[in-house]
Amino acid sequence: MSGLSLDATQLDRYSRHIIMDEVGPEGQKRLLDGRVLVVGAGGLGAPVVQYLAAAGVGELVVVDDDVVERSNLQRQVIHADADVGVPKAESAKAFVERLNPDVTVEAHETRLDRENAESLVADCDAVVDASDNFRTRYLVNDVARLAGVPVAHGAIYKFEGQATTLVPGGPCYRCLFPEAPEPGEVPDCATTGVLGVLPGVLGTIQATEAVKLLLGAGDPLSGRLLFYDALEMSFETVPYRQNPDCPVCGDDPIDSIERVEYTGGCGIAD
Amino acid sequence: MDVTVEVVGEGEETLAVDDDATYAELARAAGYSPHEVSVLVDGTPVPEDGTVTAERVTLLRLIKGG
């Protein structure tokens, strides 16, 4: 593949990518040919959509069933005051259309659930989990792993965040957190609050991982959980391993999500 | 027995637990519900009803916000 497959406008737009050996015109073409599922267009999803679109990731599939609320605007940077009341997936699509004509957005104004998850993940090169609930997180993990698609995971709480990348062949989310807590045991941002800039830090880490996965560059954040503390301004890396007893990626893995209960602990029926 | 507990993001402390204490009891002794943390030994979660045998564990809190 040569640089000639990019037009003059693209060569200009992506020149700071193309000049790097790790990207080059071939890498930029891979980004333009890439298809990434972004689950959630809220705090984490906003910077993910923003940076993946700016980078020229050609197809973004954005799934979110919420509408923009004024209380979102302190951190969800792709949505504006005029978007209050607009579905977030639609607002994300409009944002990208203003940012980069090379990128198409497939907007789904729905919640990712067991009925649509497999079709949404299929044909994607990577998934970014920017969801805000455990049911979706476990579902994303399970469906993506069964499909062999890597996931850039992120989660936030008040002043802290976690990120890790779940690559086929490496540990999955269940290797780290075998079961979800019961509803209400772990507070959400609406209850506790969240520093507005926090999802910007974690979301851009997730976007970085997605871009690296598409490029095949560097080392993914696999088998490592990155913990960020904004108050301490510190990062900590927690290593973790693939669990042989993991029902999704262990020695005796499931072959479908049919027996998984995405309620309570998101466990798998015997 | 004495167990060194590192809570990611919070630091570490050494706790004295009964010889037959479970990892769930260890998590509670550290101030957390066993359902809101993953107890890791050498990078792998251990069952919450398992008896504590490790001298050092890592507690990782589950967070869900997005």
UniProtKB/TrEMBL annotation, chain A:
Keywords, in A-Z order: ATP-binding, Nucleotide-binding, Transferase
> Which lineage ranks, top first, belong to the organism behind this chain?
Archaea, Methanobacteriati, Methanobacteriota, Stenosarchaea group, Halobacteria
| Alphabetized Gene3D superfamilies for the sequence | NAD(P)-binding Rossmann-like Domain
Looking up Pfam families in the UniProt record yields: ThiF (PF00899)
Q: Which SUPFAM superfamilies match?
A: Activating enzymes of the ubiquitin-like proteins (SSF69572)
The entry's protein name is: HesA/MoeB/ThiF family protein
Signal sequence coordinates: none
PANTHER family xrefs: ADENYLYLTRANSFERASE AND SULFURTRANSFERASE MOCS3 (PTHR10953:SF102), UBIQUITIN-ACTIVATING ENZYME E1 (PTHR10953)
Q: Where is the THIF-type NAD/FAD binding fold domain?
A: 14-248
A GO molecular function assigned to this protein is:
ATP binding
Could you tell me which species this protein originates from? Halobium salinum
Automatic annotation (TrEMBL), chain B:
User: Which Pfam families did the record assign?
Assistant: SAMP2 (PF21965)
Say which domain of life the source belongs to. Answer: Archaea
InterPro entries from the xrefs? Mopterin_synth/thiamin_S_b, SAM_domain_containing, SAMP2, SAMP2_halobacteria
Can you say what this protein is called? Ubiquitin-like small modifier protein 2
Instruction: Tell me what organism the protein belongs to.
Output: Halobium salinum
The organism's lineage is: Archaea, Methanobacteriati, Methanobacteriota, Stenosarchaea group, Halobacteria
